Automatic annotation (TrEMBL):
Pfam families, A to Z: CZB (PF13682), EAL (PF00563), GGDEF (PF00990), HAMP (PF00672), PAS (PF00989)
Membrane-spanning ranges: 159-184
Domain PAS: 251-297
GO biological process: regulation of DNA-templated transcription; signal transduction
One example GO MF annotation: catalytic activity
Xref: InterPro entries: Biofilm_reg_signaling, Chemoreceptor_zinc-bind_dom, EAL_dom, EAL_sf, GGDEF_dom, HAMP_dom, Nucleotide_cyclase, PAC
Organism whose genome encodes this protein: Tibeticola sediminis
Protein's UniProt name: PAS domain S-box-containing protein/diguanylate cyclase (GGDEF)-like protein
UniProt GO cellular component terms: membrane
């Protein structure tokens, strides 16, 4: 039925539906009609019977009283004839009966209607009474045929009305559907054509409903077309993605196998084909466990399948590193590292598994090499410190089971650095390799030779019966290393210094034994090099004292017991302060303020020196900020130990301390380093200095001239300042060599664009000579001693440059005037020597130098160089009588002091000081005459000749 309905045309289905609806409505109307008609018929039947009974019963009672039964019969027949609904009237009176029957009405309805209507004849009994007398019973019967005919006629009229309604509905619906048929056909046609062409759209025609239907269809078609376009784009994208996925799979350096949810292989790349020995075509569709077989390399047992485990646990399985090997199809074992992970979609549905594994052969080879390198020196192939310590520990453990002596030795090469610097690092490396080979030639098979780094080597000599054996082996080693080495075209000679200790006479652990051997090695080096030295207890006690002091210095650093004094640097030519050098002092809680000699020897290297440097940087910048707050802007130089400067952390330390004081201008901080810190690793020194420059920090090379500095180093080293060591400045007026060296350094500074600072200036004459040589910047006790920060501002307000500096500041005098400055210095030294006798000091002058004013150094200058160059100047001529009086008073003072005449000697001392000032005044006047008038030409003739 359903299939038949679906095959009917739309119009037929609509008509049937409408007719069915109308029919259902008509059926309902007929049912209501039947109910109403039947009820009305029954009510009419009851009324007819009641009315007939009411009319006839009294009449029959009267007839009975009168005995006129004929009238009664006539009356009954007349009633039946006049009312066709009455089928029969019967009067039962006693045993008599009287009946009248009507003519039956013919039925006009079909038999089925009689059954359907269900309306039957209903008899009605009524007593016939008159007063209290009963005259029988009247029986009335209704004929239902008439009632049925009436209902049938009504039924026919209802059926005609229903049929007319159905006909009208069919006609109207057909008209409406026919009017929309063209639009519906167009829509239907568009729907059919849309299957092959998604651009087809339905025309919007007809009724509002069909127009709406067409519009909805078109909107639906637009959405479908858009979805189709998106699907095509997505298909193209995923096809490209699939191709990229395939290309990626093939390009991955690791081996990759992809399996479905059943663990069967669907894809694999070339690396997986190579390692498993299976081609992709043959492996596809096979279970992963057939292609990827993991076995234990030690036992050969097959290990669990990671793919099956990942699929079962629905979790990644990995970490089979170094414990599993992949058995290839041809039986080859590959050490692999494998990881298997399940493949799920966004809903968590399991779709398969991906297995990634890599060949660890090269990795294991590299690991073996790394393990070897971790225990050996890369340059010589000897054991390194770690392997050496292990073997030493084993030797100690073995000696406890079988009592034997063990010698622990350390040696390094004498004069290795000059060879390395002169011939280069390649030659130095070759020399170290030859040293290792020669040492191994001397040693026994049971001995261990190790390189600790640089030119430092260590030895373990086990199984010794007496100490002399260790000394004999060590001596042979030193003799072998003292033989010449051939390095390319060069032949070099070096030696070694060796220190050793013997276990169990020295009952220490491996670290302590090495430390004792190291102390013995330095003792050998300090005793003359190319020596060997055995560690002893007395030396250990000295070292213990050193360690205790070292611990106290470390505690002082931790408790911030260090403070900084500041020594000024001045520009002598301009007469201004240009900066300060921060110098550490130890404020000891018990011993008071201690000089650097109390702590610097214990912290020249290592972490303590670095910590002191960090504290010095912080203190200097904090002090600069404090001075800046009081309106004083300057620069502070901080000394940095070599170990700190060459440490990896140095630039970070400087950057960090600058970051904590961001208000200071660039250039406020200067770093002072010694030559060795820069020259030991020149490339690193250059990099660190350039990093400091980026931070706005200048760098000074301290104690210049005392180390290894050369023109080549100075050219490559981008320092900003050269500091001339005070040892050259101190003897400047006495030693022509120092004078020449300072002049050379000043010239180098000018050539290379470096500022030059002279340290240790104590006399005004030294400053004048320094300015003449091109060095205007100076510091020293003659300017100011290092002072606490609290005293700096007050000193700055009161300090004035020496008048002699201002005198010569703007004049370029000749070096031939140098003896004039020395003469002033010599006179002051002579005065100090004579005045020292007042305190009981011996006379440190020769007799002639004391008594004869021509025999002292000032007199010698006066009679020679002074006469030739300045003889025509008035101040020169006025000097001799005053100088002669100086010697007379000085001679008398020495005699009075020698004879115990203290008061006389003291009085003569005051007279001598006044004469000294007079001499200095005349020498200063002479300098002014030289500057402003120049030396007379006549006086210069002999000198030029």
């Amino acid at each position: 039925m359903k299939r038949l309905w679906s095959r009917l045309p739309l119009l037929a289905r609509l008509l049937l539906a409408v007719l069915l609806a109308v029919g259902l409505a008509g059926g309902l109307r007929l049912a209501l009609f039947f109910g109403e008609a039947t009820a009305q018929a029954q009510a009419q039947q009851a009324r007819t019977l009641a009315l007939a009974g009411e009319l006839l019963a009294p009449l029959l009672a009267e007839a009975a009283v009168t005995g006129d039964y004929g009238a009664a019969s006539e009356l009954m027949h007349r009633l039946v004839d006049t009312d066709p609904a009455l089928a029969e009237v019967e009067w039962v009176y006693g045993r008599s009966r009287m009946k009248a029957a009507g003519v039956p009405e013919p039925a006009v309805y079909p038999r089925w209607f009689e059954t359907l209507i269900g309306l039957e004849a209903q008899p009605h009994a009524r007593p016939v009474r008159l007063g209290d007398v009963d005259y029988g019973q009247l029986l009335l019967t209704i004929d239902p045929v008439g009632l049925r005919n009436t209902i049938w006629l009504g039924f026919q009229r209802q059926m005609l009305a229903i049929g007319a309604a159905m006909m009208a509905a069919s006609v109207l619906l057909s008209a409406v559907l026919f009017s929309s048929l063209q639009a519906l056909r167009a829509i239907l046609s568009a729907m059919r054509r849309f299957r092959g062409d998604s651009t087809v759209r339905a025309p919007v025609l007809g009724s509002p409903e069909t127009r709406t239907l067409a519009e909805n269809f078109n909107r639906m078609a637009d959405e479908i077309a858009a979805n189709l376009a998106a699907l095509r784009e997505a298909r193209a994208h995923w096809q490209g993605f699939a191709q990229l996925h395939q290309a990626t799979l093939l390009a991955i350096a690791d081996a990759v196998i992809v399996c479905d949810a059943e663990g069967q292989i669907t894809q694999m790349n070339a690396v997986a084909e190579r390692l498993t020995g299976w081609s992709r075509s043959k492996a596809t569709g096979r279970a992963a466990r057939e292609v990827f077989r993991l076995v234990d390399p030690a036992s050969g047992l097959v290990m669990p399948d990671p793919v099956a485990a990942a699929l079962h646990l629905r979790a990644a399985i990995g970490g089979r590193t170094g414990t599993a090997s992949l058995e290839s199809r041809d039986g080859t074992l590959w050490p692999v590292e494998a990881t298997a992970a399940p493949i799920r979609d966004e809903a968590g549905v399991l779709h398969g598994c991906v297995l990634v594994f890599r060949d660890r052969t090269q990795h294991e080879q590299i690991q073996q090499r790394l393990n070897w390198q971790a225990l050996h020196d890369a340059l010589t192939g000897l054991p390194n410190r770690y392997l050496f310590s292990d073997r030493l520990a084993q030797a100690i453990a073995r000696s406890e089971r079988q009592p034997q002596l063990i010698a622990v030795c350390l040696f390094d090469l004498d004069r290795f650095k000059p060879v390395n610097d002169r011939l280069g690092h390649a030659a130095g490396d070759e020399l170290l390799r030859q040293v290792a080979r020669r040492a191994q030639e001397v040693l026994r098979d049971t001995d261990t030779l190790a390189r600790f780094g640089g030119d430092e080597f260590a030895l373990v000599l086990p199984d010794l019966r007496q100490v002399d054996e260790a000394e004999s082996i060590a001596q042979r080693l030193l003799e072998r290393l003292a033989e010449p080495f051939v390095l390319g075209a060069e032949t070099v000679e070096i030696s070694a210094s060796l220190g050793y200790t013997v276990y169990p006479f020295d009952p220490g652990d491996p670290d302590l034994l090495l430390r004792h051997a190291d102390q013995a090695m330095y003792a050998a080096k300090h005793s003359g090099r190319n020596r060997l030295h055995l560690y002893d207890v007395a030396s250990d006690q000295m070292q213990e004292a050193h360690r205790q002091q070292l611990d106290r210095v470390r505690l002082a650093l931790e408790q911030r017991e260090f403070e900084w004094h500041y020594q000024p640097k001045v520009d002598m030519r301009r007469g201004v302060v240009v900066g300060f050098e921060a110098l550490a002092r130890w404020r000891h809680p018990e011993r008071g303020l201690l000089s650097p000699l109390a702590f610097l020897p214990y912290m020249e290297s290592g972490p303590l020196a670095i910590e002191l440097g960090v504290q010095a940087l912080e203190a200097a910048l904090a002090q600069l900020e404090a001075w800046a707050a009081e309106g004083f802007q300057t620069r502070v130089a901080v000394n940095v130990a070599p170990d700190h400067f060459t440490a990896d952390r140095f630039v970070d330390d400087v950057r960090a301390v600058l970051a904590r004081h961001p208000s200071l201008p660039s250039g406020s901080l200067e770093i002072e380093i010694v030559e060795s810190a820069a020259i030991d690793d020149l490339a690193r020194a250059v990099a660190v200095i350039e990093a400091c420059h980026v931070l706005g920090v200048t760098v000074a090379l301290d104690d210049f001239g005392t180390g290894y500095a050369s023109l080549s180093y100075l050219k490559r080293l981008p320092v900003d300042v050269l500091k001339i060591d005070q040892s050259f400045v101190r003897d400047l007026l006495d030693d022509r060599g120092d004078l020449a060296l300072i002049e050379a350094v000043a010239a180098l500074g000018s050539v290379f664009g470096r500022r030059v600072v002279a340290e240790g200036v104590e006399l005004a004459e030294q400053g004048v000579v320094l300015m003449r040589l091109g060095c205007d910047l100076a510091q020293g006790y003659g300017i100011a001693r290092p002072m606490p920060a609290a005293e700096v501002l007050a000193w700055r307000e009161t300090w004035r440059a020496d008048p002699a500096w201002a005198l010569w500041a703007d004049t370029r005098w000749e070096l031939s005037d140098f003896p004039l400055l020395v003469a002033q210095y010599d006179h002051l030294r002579w005065i100090r020597t004579v005045l020292a006798t007042l305190d009981g000091a011996p006379v440190r002058l020769g007799h002639e130098e004391l008594v004869d004013h021509h025999a002292c150094r000032l007199g010698h200058w006066y009679d020679t160089h002074g006469r030739r160059r300045y003889g025509a100047l008035p101040a020169y001529r006025a000097l001799e009588p005053v100088h002669a009086e100086v010697h007379r008073v000085g001679r008398a003072l020495v005699a009075a002091a020698a004879s115990g005449q203290k008061e006389t000697a003291a009085q003569l001392g005051l007279e001598l000081l006044a004469l000294k000032d007079r001499v200095l005044e005349l020498l200063a006047r002479l300098q002014i005459e030289v500057l402003h008038a120049g030396a007379p030409d006549a006086a210069l003739g002999d000198d030029q000749a």
